[in-house]
Design a protein that fits this description.
single chain, five-stranded mixed sheet, alpha/beta, 14 strands, Rossmann fold
């Protein structure tokens, strides 16, 4: 399941430094020739694809990127120093569009790929360039040219990283509202979510992931009951499943039985889904007395024989939801490190 994440930013390349009009002045040499140096070039703005980023959420906080200008030229034939380039990191798969012209500047599809989005200005010429046989003392110099300024639209087709499993009214929409800026519909009747909603969860700078709130699953979903087939197709594209369970349903249903029903539907649709990492979220623990929460949660886990990660949360009261997000981000960070190590190992073997 993909959606388009967008951001609009402004990039300003550095202006070129001005050239210098200067003359050599030394003892016993009253009429030295011109020695004004050139100005330095302004810094460029580059975009670099980084596979460690998943979303464009960081551009909500910083929307302008500016490269430094070049240094002015100086006397004694000294040229100005060029401005350093500015690098903007974006996720792999980002398209860069010039907002003024609707022109596609480029697509960043490979980790480490670089794209020049704003070129720095050219440094001006010093008066040493204007000396001639007829003009031995030129006072002419040129100014540096301005760097490019562009307003860019970044577009990223994002695949949801996390899928939410659970019966209707298990609290999936409430959970995604608690951990992201997404606002899916929330009500006290089944199937309030009729189409997938995606939210970007930001844990810290350059640390984010996408979570999908998908229509609830019921018994018989693998055969098409409810919205099951649509749900199962979407959930098969995620990398981690969070299985939400209502620990105090209004109809008095057994939470353990609800978990078993959904596991059976996953098995009927695609047995490989049960092999995918799946964590259990015991939701609505705020309805239990505070002193009973730990014991009741442990009892459910023992009855299930659950050996994967689990959390006792309340999405409505935002109890332990932050802990879940931090654990999910750590999970993806570790996966990324393992993939990088495996790639490095395979490169070493091939070179050997």
């Amino acid at each position: 399941m993909k959606f388009v994440d967008e951001a609009i930013i402004k990039v300003l390349a550095g202006n070129g430094g001005d050239g210098c009009a200067s003359f050599r002045r030394e003892k016993f040499i009253p009429y030295g020739g011109p020695n004004g140096g050139d100005g330095g070039d302004g810094g460029n703005v580059w975009m670099v694809a980084d596979e460690g980023l998943n979303t464009l959420v960081d551009f909500r906080h910083q929307r302008q990127f500016k490269a430094p200008r070049g240094q002015n030229g100086m006397g004694s034939d000294m040229y100005g120093r060029g401005g350093e380039d500015t690098t903007v990191r974006v996720p792999v798969g980002t398209s860069v569009v010039n907002l003024d012209t609707d022109e596609l500047i480029g697509d960043l599809t490979v980790h480490g790929q670089r794209l020049l989005v704003a070129k720095g200005g050219k440094g001006g010429l010093g008066n040493i360039h204007f000396k001639s046989s007829t003009n031995r003392a030129p006072r002419r110099f040129t100014r540096g040219t301005p760097g490019e300024t562009r307003e860019l639209k970044l577009e990223l087709k994002v695949l949801a990283d996390v899928g939410l499993l659970g019966f209707p009214n298990a609290g999936k929409s409430t959970f995604i509202r608690a951990v992201s800026a997404a606002t899916p519909r929330v009500a006290d009747y089944p199937f309030t979510t009729l189409q997938p909603h995606l939210g970007v969860v930001s844990v810290g700078p350059s640390q984010s992931f996408v979570v999908a709130d998908i229509p609830g699953l019921i018994e018989g979903a693998a055969e098409g009951a409810g919205l099951g087939i649509q749900f199962l197709k979407h959930v098969s594209r995620t990398r981690l499943l969070l299985h939400l369970v209502d620990v105090a349903p209004l109809d008095g249903a057994d939470p353990v039985a609800q978990v078993r029903i959904i596991e059976a539907e996953l098995r009927r649709h695609d047995p490989a889904l049960l092999e995918r990492p799946r964590w259990l979220l015991l939701n609505k623990v705020d309805l239990w007395a505070p002193g009973e929460r730990a014991a009741k949660a442990q009892a459910i886990i023992r009855r299930l024989g659950w050996d994967a990660r689990w959390f006792a949360i309340s999405a409505a009261e935002r109890v332990a939801t932050r802990d879940v997000c931090l654990a999910v981000q750590q999970f993806f960070d570790e996966r990324h490190e393992q993939a990088a190590e495996a790639a490095a190992g395979s490169d070493g073997e091939s070179s050997a």
